[in-house]
Amino acid sequence: MGLVVSILLFFVSGDVIYAFGRSKYNEYLLNKTVEEGTRPKIDISDDKLVSRPLVVERLKKILQPDRDQSYYYLICGEHGTGKTTLARIASSEVGCGVIYVDIPANLDELGEAFGKAINFALEKVSVTGQWLRKIKSDDAPKLSEWGKALKAFRHASEVYKAKHDKPMVIVYDNVSHLVQENPKILDILQDDAKHSADDRKYIAVFVCSEGSVPRRMESRSAWSRAKTPVMEIGDLSKEESMKYLIKKRNIKEVDANKLFDLVGGRIIELKTVADDFLAGKEFEIIKQQVLDKVEKKFQSAQLLPNDLYYEVGKSLISDLLKSNELSFLAFKKYFDKVEELNEVLGSNIFAYHPEKNIVTFQSRSVESYIQENANLFNMH
Question: Which residues form the ATPase domain (predicted)?
């Protein structure tokens, strides 16, 4: 019996020393990372990168708060507008005091994403801990990993502010993944951002696609500490788009105009059609590919003839073609149930813009599809 106790004491004391050492090492790594900033990499070559200096400068101001700032930020933009690239550029250029967390699509990897962002070595279960788990059959919840990283981040924010007399910043990119899979995590991060803004400890910046994320965040009491109006990152202007197509991609002006008229200034779509055009595809083939892709969105949204939302969709499309935008209240009046509104608004046919509280078509390519298929929607 005495031998067993001695062995247990040996392992337990070893675990205590290991835990203490790991804690101190984590603290050192975290403070070092905060001082230097995450500085995320930009995986786009200079010849393909579209410069948007005004947007980057606006983001950099957000990432450099003053000592008494008491609010957090929400930055929105449709998928393909370049939000992530711009957020990474601004975070990298500011550097010191900015931590960038890329929320993964697979939330099982959330703890790893937090740990990677703040250089935080996630807990490894010790020998004693493994024995105890076998005895208790107690599996730690996956959320505990990112929770520990967030707790460590709070502590680091106090150290940083004491040294620099201003709060540090944490950027949560791609938070749309949270609202789809586990909105409670988004709620926790928003609540923590609100409390931290109250205490002037750190400033959170949420980056998301327009849609259900801003509507959910706006509906909660923690929204009281959000900076309004919300910043939106939109499409490239025609001038920016033409500069990209002509100077960056070496496409003739007449052809560049056709491509822009088809997909507008959505950079991800511009890049795709430019790639196809330079690969030798004829414009009409490219156009049909774009329209086929949009038609699948209409099909998924149940907005085609004989579909569930076809009639209400026709009315919405007609009104938007007349005015280009609808107030959110006007859009909402078309639906009897919130679930129906959310389903249609989340279908990538229409887009909600929190900055102005309006609804528009989601993209130029959606408008192109409607114009090409006017007979489907009784448009003449």
Answer: 56-272
